[in-house]
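Residues determine shape. We examine one folded chain.
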Amino acid sequence: MYLEPPFSASEATGADREQALAEQLGHFVRAARNAFSRNTERAVRSDLAIYAAWCALHGLRALPAEPETVAAFVDDKAELRKPATVRRYVASIAIAHRALGRGRTMSSPAIRLALQRMHRMKGRRQGQATGLTWPLRQRLLEAAGGRLIDDRNRALLAVAYDTMLRRAELVSLQVADLLEEMPGNASLLVRRSKTDGEGRGEIVYVARDTVRLVRTWLGRAGIAEGLLLRSVAKGGRVGDRLHPAHVARILKAMARDAGLPDEVVEGLSGHSARVGAAQDMIAAGIELPAILQAGRWRSTAMVNRYGERLLARRSGAAQLARLQQRD
C-alpha cells in the first residue's frame, strides 16, 4: 500500500497538515476495506481519526510517526480515557504502521514505557458487564408485555443467551440460518464472526423454548425470510436491520420494565447474555472445553475473567476451608 508522505510541521499550515492527514487516513481505510470485520474497520477508522486530530493539534506527523509522538499521545489520552480504550487506540495506530511497513515503530521502548505509566496510574483491570444469568433472563422474559416489540425482545434475549453471540453476530442472523431439529431443539448458522473473519460459518445450539419464542415473533411480524431480528417502530411497524448498539438498549429497557435496580440496568451491555451464560455454565460444573466451544473462544482468558468469582469458590483455599469445616 502506498500513502502520500505527510507534511512536517515546518512545511505547511495547520489546515494543510489536517487535510494531508485526512487524505492519508482515507487512503489507508479504503485500502484496508474488507481486510477486517466491519466492527474492527469502524473502530480503526474512528481511532485513527482521533489520533490524526491530536497530531494535527500538536503539529506532529501522524503516519509514519516517531515513537515519541505515539508515547505522548498515550500519556495525554491516559489522563481521560480508560486503559482499555487507550490500548485500542495504540492497536489501531499499529495496524496503520504495519500497512506502511513501519511495524517496528510500535515496539519502541518509549511507547512501551508510556503504556506502563498508564497501567501503574490506573491499573489494568477492566470493568465487566453484568452477567445476564438464568434467573435474570427469566425475570426479563416474564416481565415483557404483549406488544410485537416485546415478542422481538423476548426472542432476541433468548437467542443471545443460548448462542452466546456477540452483538454484531446476533443482529446479522437470517431466518434461513435457523434449522429446527427433532424433538424441537434447533441450530443456528453464524455466517461470519469475530473469530471467523473468512466466513467459513459456525453452528450454535438453540433450545426448544427459545425456538418457540422466535417462532412467535416471526409469526406475528410476518417475517418469512431475510433478517431474523429487526427494528420495530412505534405502532408496531416492522423495520429493517438492528444496529449492534441497539442490543444493549433493548436489554436495559427490558430490565427497567422488570423493575430492576438502576445499578443492574446500567451494568447491562450487549455482551451481558454472553457473560451470564458462561457464568451459568461454570456454576453448573460444565467442563471448560465445552464452555470454550459454546462461546467460540480460542483461549480460557475471557472465561476465567467472566467466572472469576465462581472459580474462586473452587480454589484450593476454598476447598481446604470446606475440608476443615470452617464456619
About this structure: Residues 1-14 have pLDDT under 50 and may be disordered. The beta strands are 178-180, 186-190, 202-206, 230-232, 238-241.
